[in-house]
Structure formats: structure tokens, C-alpha cells
């Protein structure tokens, strides 16, 4: 592109700043101006990623992140900053994992990473024939005779036809989440799972797996999509027993440890015991810096409060930024937050979760939204949000940290922040989830879009 | 994010595939499925970037790109593939430029790049005192006495408050585009221009500058935003004459050379002489691979035809993919295309230009669109495009290559493809405009969105 004056966009900005005189549109413009000119979330994220780094639940680094986050919130002069104690998951990866495809005498090293929550292999590693499957259902069709003593290789790829990649993740995810538990029932000795991404790369994408409480626990690892394709090709070309897989991992689940959610709030001037919250999770996986997952989410959450303060806005209801602990490993911080909200009779009006990356905002999804609600909210607010291109207000998920709040109050509205989804699973849960892959403006626009929605909810409620 | 089944998106896909039975919605789903499953534009772009590389207008590499593009189109079996001769701009950069801030005895090297079309400095370089300005208007206020014999440093930054970065580019762009011509009138001996980006980086962002035909031509270069900030700080701290700037560049404008637009078409079954075209520019700047500018645009354009063929669609009107030559340096390919369209009495219904990067599509802008047109097109088509999140149909720019078509036919609709704009000016016209900064799915979604729009125009016209 050479040179062009995009008249329409200039028009939009002037409409929002001058012509449309409503208080709401002026306030939204003020929010965006504050963030795009004076935004601090990008530099805060830099500190979190580069000076603290990975923040695996239960780790010393997670504690460092808690301490720093509390100080950060205090530095902004919010009305109240506090920690909520929670006993959280403490899983450790141990030594770097080793994975190999064994083809007779040939041993081909491949990129693997233990799944979060997985048990270790025997100290010398585990070697067995491989059986490739594409669904949990296929295990039943094959039966114990075919599976017993083998390593089950779950290899169903992402379906590229979904427009939002979160849907591809959702439909492929049972392999990682429930594959080990399911395969163990048929006598499998281990599980390797194709990384949950459409990208063909050589990074294992980690993430949790869950065992049945009373079931056999077998070790489980993610394998890169490139290695998965290679293994699958080799299995297709050779008879099954010729190809074996070897892996070694020393991860273990330790007893829960004390950790904290970090909470900052601006007290409501009219309804101090009514809450609108925005949050993400402070813990991360341990393979990188947890930049998009979910450093961007927590730094946007605190930024929402900073923006509202900076614009001089005095909310009617109490606005909170919540940094949840242990989202990745067990979700115990989110559960604790809801438990305390109920115990303290805090009336939560709405909760926004930002945990889909710090990409350009597209809009918000509302949990269990009725057609009437969607019609009402779109009619009233989409025109206000349209100049900022964050006006896709749809039914959909909220997020796993806020979902516990559902039980605290019938009327609560749970909301998911929806950024553009195309790049998220390229880096999700991999060594590539680093600060360098976050764009400053995209991050800031997300923070401003959430500050705008919170302002609108605070002013007008959500009774559509 | 841990694990989530995004019900809404699954719902969208099922609506588009099953429930909504209209021919149009089924065809759009077919287009997206074809592209997301069998897309070829990413691998084609890889070839263009890595096996050919930069394609500066008039260069040997531009000719290589023409030859390969023609072969590529022929390999897809389109009804007709042909070249259009055009005499195009032939500017050459010469030796790598040298730029220095001179502070007494101290010489600080800084990153600069000659602006396209600029003349050279004297062979030994040019050294002069610097005067910093922030607008073309400021030159007049300062007057010849203050400017004569100096290097004018245009340093107005991007305005971060624009939501779409193209608007910031548009409002800052006159410094680069017209700064040298304007400064020359007041006796300046050279011009350096702050790179047109919000990003604070150390890359010069090149691009054209235009001289007045009868004016004095002074050398002009882009300076990185980091170096611009440094120079500005030094000028603020010290008295003006102490700080000088030195630069040396050996670029020159050679006589126009013969080159080509590359055109592929699928013949219309009902109206073979009515045309709907989609195009981008094949030439690029010479600092990198022209990946987003505009390798993505040309590879998407040919992909639109490939998709339509692959789905078995027989268009009523002739559909063309056009690779324009010389967009960056002079725009002569675009002018030639329009000239031939008029001379050959080709009735162009609509033209889409894709030259804002291969990022996630947001929608389309329509040149000189009336409120009635926008209302009509949104009412009829935005619901069809919404499942693909490419439904922002607004008034706005088309693009500099297709704008020449305006004169060929009163009713023609000029359309700009509008991808997400946040990351474009981070890499625009820099050494960072490489294949690695293109996301496969984002690129493919753009191609599918344009194939969808072309299908709808072909079926229903644009008489809103």
C-alpha cells in the first residue's frame, strides 16, 4: 500500500468525538484515547514476562508473580488491594522429557512434553508398540485386546473448517483432556497426544490431562504436530509391531500448596456491595512466559481499573480486577473466588474473563444468553462499540475461572472477552508463548474494549 | 486457556452448513471449506517470497515474478491468462544509505532508507543543520530564512487514537509523500522523514515521495522512529546549529521500462464482457520480500479464482485476478489496466483491491457508498457474511490500483478489502515484511471472504 487517506475512519473518529453527543459515546472515546495514548499494560506485560517469566501453579515463580501483582495494583492507588488464600495444584515437570520413535535399530528423537497432571514414566522410560486412534470412541471399538500393553497415540487433527479456532480446540481437546483416563481403562501403558493446534510445527503444546479418581494413572505427553505426522506416516507404511515409541518423563503431582488470587478494586459509590469484575489467570504453563496465556489477560484486567481511574470515572458499583491462580493446572483459584463471594454475600452483577489471548478484540460472548438478551444488548450497545470494531455481541462461553460464580447468584451475567482467534493456537502452551508475539495496540484495544463494556454495565445494567 | 467447547461457534458452523438452506449460504460455506481445507495461497506466497523475493518495479526480480505468476495462473487452467504491457517506473536504490547525527565531534549512525523516487545526495553525502517540523504548514510559518540550506526533519508521529491504523498513516503520510517537494520551495537541501509507523523500532520504513515537475529535487530519506526520537531529543537539548545531519544515498530514477500486469480470468457464462475483478500489486519495495505488501494480495487474488473453479462454480460474469505492476513506485500498471479496459469496451461491474496486508478479514469498504447503498448491502449480505466475521461493510477507500477504473464506467463499484489493521504498519515497507510474518489461516480467510463477495456480486449485482 502506497498512500491513502481512509476517509471513513477519520469520519468515525470525528463522529465519536464530536457529532454524537451522548455521554456514553463521549466516555467510550475517552477510554480509548486514554489507553491508546497512555496505555501501560504492554510495559507491565513486559515485566511479567521478562522479569518473572513462567508462573506454573505452585511454583516459586508463581509466588513472585503474586507479590509483584499486588505491588503493581497498590501502585495504582486502587481503593483496595488484597490477596485471597487458596490451596492450589502443585504439579512439577521434572527433567526435560525424552521422546523417540523406535523403528527397529533406528531411534528418531521427537519433540514431546508431559501433559500437566501426568504421572511419570518408569525412571528408565517406557517403550511399547503404538496404536494410533482418532477418537476416544475408537478405543471401545478396538477393545482391550488391541490396546493392552500399548501406547495409545491420539492423532485427530484440528478441523480447519471452523472459523474460530477455539471451536477446533474444543472439538479436538478431549484427546488431551480425557485420553489418558480413557486409554488406561483398556490396558494402555501410556498415551501420546497430537498437539492441539492446526499449525504444523515442531513444538509440543502442553496442557492438562485428567485421570479418573479411582482409575489407573498412565503417563501422557503431547507430541508436536510434525512428529505426529511423521509417526502416523511410519505406522501407515510399516506393520504395527515394528514401530515402537519410547518416552521418559519425571513429572509428578505434589500436595496442594498455599497460593493466592490477587484482587484490586475501585469501590462503588452507590452500590459498594455490587460487583462487576474482570479477570484472567496469573499462573501459566512452564514452557515459556505465559504471554498470551494469560499474561495479556491479567495485565488487561488491571489496566481496565487504571483506565477508569485515569478518566476520573466514579463507578456506581464496585469494579474488581481479579488475577486467578491455578487456572491451567486445576482451577482452584477460580473456585475459591466464587466460594468467598458467596460466603461474603458479595452480589456479583457481571464477570468478564479474558483468557483467549491479547489479540485484536472482536467483541464479547455472553453465557446462556437468550435471543431477547442478545437482541437488546445489540440494539442498545453495538452502535456504541462499532467505531471500535469490538461490537460482536454473541452467545457463547465465559471462561473456566468465572464459571464457578454461576452458582453464587441466579442473575449474574458471565462474559467472555473475544479477541481474534486465528493466531492463538500457533503459540498456545508452547515455548513460543513469549512477549515478542504480543502486539501493543492489539493488547491495548482489548483493555479499552473491556473498560468500555464495564462502564456500560455499570451505568445501565444488563437487564435486556 | 485450558479447555473449552465454544458452543456458539459450533452453532454457527451448523447454521451455515445445515439449517440455513439458502443457496447463497451453502455456497459461502463451500467456499470457506475449500479454502480452509485445500488452500494453496500460503504455499504460493512462500514461493513468491523465498524463491523470487523483492520485486521493485522495473527490476529483474519483478520480471521473474511476472513470468512465474503467469505460469502459476496457467497451471490452474483458467480460461485465459495474459500479460498487459505497461511502461513502468524504474527507480533504483543504489548503495546502502548512510545516515548520521553529527554532534560536534561525535557521529551517531542511524537507520535510514532513501524514499522511493528520491534523487541521490552528492557523491560524498550531504551534511547540514537540521530543522525539525511537524507539518507541511509549519514550513510556511518558519519561512525561507529559517529553512534555507538546512535539512528539514519531518517528525510528526502517528496519532495512536485512530482505531484503524490506515487512518494514522493517511494523516501522517503527507510528510513522506509531499515533504521533500514542499521543503525544497523554502530552500531546504534535504529531507528526512520519521518512518510512518506507530511502532518504536529501528527500521526505516521506505515509500514514495513525489517532486513537483518544475520544482527543485532534493534528496529525501526515511529515518527509523527510534532514531527520530533520538534526533528530536538531541535537538531539544542543544542549540540548533550544533546538531547536524549527514546522509548519503545514490538512488536514481531511470527511464521507464517495459513490464506487465498479469491477468487471469474465468469467462462469464452469461455476460462474458462484464467483469468483476480482484487484484493486488505484484511489485514491492526492495527492503524485504513484499510479503504483506502485497504478496498476500496477489496470492489471494489468484486464489479467489482457484476457489471458484474448485467449487465448480460457473460465474455469470467474467471474473478476473489482476496482478498490477508499479503500484509502489508510480501506479502505471493500474493506470494501464483502466486504459485498456476502456479501449476494449470491457464493462467492469466491480473491482476489489487487496492491498492492506494478509491479516484476518474484517469486511469491505465501498468507495463513495451512499447511505442507501450501505443500508441495502448490509441488509442483504451481512447476515451471510457474519458467520465468517467478515461482515463489516462500510464506506471507505478502494485502492490506488483500481481507482483509475472509476473513469471507465459511471456505475462501477470500487471496493477495498479490509483486514485487521493493527499489525500492518509494524512491518510496512521495512526489512520485516517477510513471509514469516504472515499467518496461514488469516491469509486463507481473506481469500475466502473475497471469493464470497465476488460470488454474491456475480449472482445478485450491486444495485442497492
UniProtKB/TrEMBL annotation, chains A, B:
Signal sequence, start to end: 1-20
MF GO annotations: carboxypeptidase activity; metal ion binding; metallodipeptidase activity
CC per GO annotation: extracellular region; lysosome
UniProt-annotated location(s): Endoplasmic reticulum; Golgi apparatus; Lysosome; Secreted
Superkingdom of this protein's organism: Bacteria
GO BP term, example: proteolysis
Residue ranges of domain Peptidase M28 in the record: 261-445
Annotated InterPro entries: CPQ, PA_domain, Peptidase_M28
Predominant localisation class: endoplasmic reticulum
Any Pfam family hit: Peptidase_M28
Chain ranges of the PA domain: 145-231
Record keywords: Carboxypeptidase, Endoplasmic reticulum, Glycoprotein, Golgi apparatus, Hydrolase, Lysosome, Metal-binding, Metalloprotease, Protease, Secreted, Signal, Zinc, Zymogen
Quaternary assembly: Homodimer. The monomeric form is inactive while the homodimer is active.
Protein name per the record: Carboxypeptidase Q
UniProt source species: Mucilaginibacter gracilis
Amino acid at each position: 500500500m502506497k498512500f491513502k487517506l481512509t476517509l471513513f475512519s477519520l469520519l468515525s473518529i470525528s463522529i465519536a468525538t464530536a457529532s454524537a453527543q451522548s455521554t456514553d459515546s463521549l466516555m467510550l472515546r475517552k477510554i480509548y484515547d486514554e489507553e491508546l495514548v497512555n496505555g501501560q499494560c504492554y510495559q507491565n506485560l513486559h515485566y511479567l514476562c521478562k522479569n518473572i517469566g513462567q508462573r506454573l501453579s505452585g511454583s516459586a515463580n508463581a509466588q513472585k508473580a503474586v507479590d509483584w501483582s499486588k505491588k503493581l495494583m497498590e501502585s495504582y492507588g486502587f481503593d483496595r488491594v488484597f490477596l485471597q488464600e487458596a490451596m492450589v495444584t502443585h504439579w512439577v515437570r521434572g527433567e526435560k522429557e525424552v521422546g523417540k520413535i523406535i523403528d527397529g535399530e533406528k531411534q528418531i528423537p521427537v519433540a514431546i512434553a508431559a501433559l500437566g497432571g501426568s504421572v511419570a514414566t518408569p525412571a528408565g522410560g517406557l517403550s511399547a508398540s503404538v496404536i494410533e486412534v482418532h477418537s476416544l470412541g475408537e478405543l471401545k471399538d478396538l477393545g482391550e485386546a488391541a490396546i493392552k500393553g500399548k501406547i495409545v497415540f491420539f492423532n485427530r487433527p484440528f478441523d480447519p473448517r471452523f472459523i474460530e479456532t477455539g471451536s477446533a480446540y474444543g472439538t479436538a481437546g478431549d484427546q488431551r483432556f480425557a485420553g489418558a483416563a480413557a486409554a488406561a481403562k483398556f490396558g494402555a501403558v501410556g498415551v501420546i497426544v497430537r498437539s492441539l493446534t492446526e499449525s504444523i510445527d515442531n513444538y509440543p503444546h502442553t496442557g492438562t490431562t485428567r485421570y479418573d479418581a479411582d482409575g489407573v494413572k498412565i503417563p501422557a505427553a503431547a507430541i508436536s504436530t510434525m512428529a505426529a505426522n511423521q509417526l502416523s506416516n511410519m505406522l501407515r507404511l510399516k506393520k504395527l509391531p515394528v514401530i515402537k515409541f519410547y518416552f521418559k518423563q519425571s513429572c509428578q503431582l505434589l500436595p496442594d500448596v498455599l497460593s493466592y488470587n490477587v484482587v484490586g478494586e475501585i469501590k462503588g459509590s452507590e452500590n459498594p456491595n455490587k460487583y462487576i469484575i474482570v479477570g484472567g489467570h496469573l499462573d501459566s504453563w512452564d514452557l515459556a512466559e505465559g504471554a498470551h496465556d494469560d499474561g495479556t489477560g491479567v495485565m488487561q484486567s488491571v489496566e481496565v481499573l487504571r483506565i477508569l481511574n485515569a478518566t476520573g470515572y466514579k463507578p456506581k458499583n464496585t469494579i474488581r480486577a481479579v488475577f486467578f491462580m491455578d487456572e491451567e493446572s486445576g482451577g482452584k483459584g477460580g473456585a475459591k473466588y466464587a466460594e468467598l463471594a458467596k460466603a461474603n454475600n458479595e452480589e456479583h452483577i457481571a464477570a468478564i474473563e479474558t483468557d483467549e489471548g491479547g489479540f485484536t478484540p472482536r467483541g464479547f460472548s455472553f453465557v446462556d444468553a437468550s435471543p431477547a438478551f442478545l437482541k437488546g444488548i445489540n440494539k442498545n450497545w453495538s452502535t456504541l462499540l462499532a467505531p471500535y470494531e469490538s461490537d460482536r455481541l454473541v452467545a457463547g462461553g465465559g471462561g473456566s475461572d468465572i464459571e464457578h460464580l454461576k452458582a453464587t447468584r441466579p442473575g449474574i451475567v458471565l462474559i467472555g472477552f473475544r479477541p481474534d482467534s486465528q493466531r492463538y493456537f500457533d503459540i498456545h502452551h508452547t515455548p513460543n508463548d513469549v512477549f515478542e508475539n504480543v502486539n501493543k495496540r492489539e493488547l491495548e484495544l482489548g483493555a479499552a474494549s473491556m473498560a468500555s463494556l464495564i462502564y456500560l454495565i455499570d451505568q445501565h445494567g444488563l437487564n435486556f
